[in-house]
Amino acid sequence: MANLTPQEIDAFLSQPRTAQLVTLRASGTPHVAPVWFLWDNGRALVMADAGAIKVRNIRRNPAVALCVCTPDHPYEFVTIEGRADITSDGLEDMVRRTCILYEAPERGAEFAAELLADERLTLITISVDRFMSWKEDEG
Questions:
Q1: DSSP, res 88
Q2: pLDDT digit string (tens) for the chain, length 139 residues
Q3: What is the pTM of this model?
Q4: Which contiguous run of DSSP H or E holds residue 42?
Q5: Burial of residue 51, with CB atoms counted within 10 A of its CB: 0-12 exposed, 13-18 middle, 19 or more buried
Q6: Residues with Cβ < 8 Å from 111, sequence gap 6 or more?
Q7: Hey, is 6 helix, strand or coil?
């Protein structure tokens, strides 16, 4: 068992994996939501409905965690602890890039257009305070 190197973390987070985004409710209890994300220049970008619980939680308390793990052997995970901001700056580009990453070019572009036509999305930008990681020993 070992931690991932910074280069391994970057490569791991660049893959299309579903992540678990943890925000805090007003009561202090955690809210966990599965999300697609885009790893971009050392920060995680997440699209969300502007009225979603996770967005309301972030507006009240920007402390978040994002956990990404492999579903099969060899097991690996990266957890990001950080602070989230809500913005619309760069939303369209992020949605297109994310949909193409997760759905491939043709379907991704179509899906991005569908999502953006609804005009309910906002962008969550997560700045990293700390990484936690682990990878299964190969052997």
A1: -
A2: 689 999 999 999 999 999 999 999 999 999 999 999 999 999 999 999 999 999 999 999 999 999 999 999 889 999 999 999 999 999 999 999 999 999 999 999 999 999 999 889 999 999 999 999 999 986 5
A3: 0.94
A4: none
A5: exposed
A6: 99, 103
A7: helix
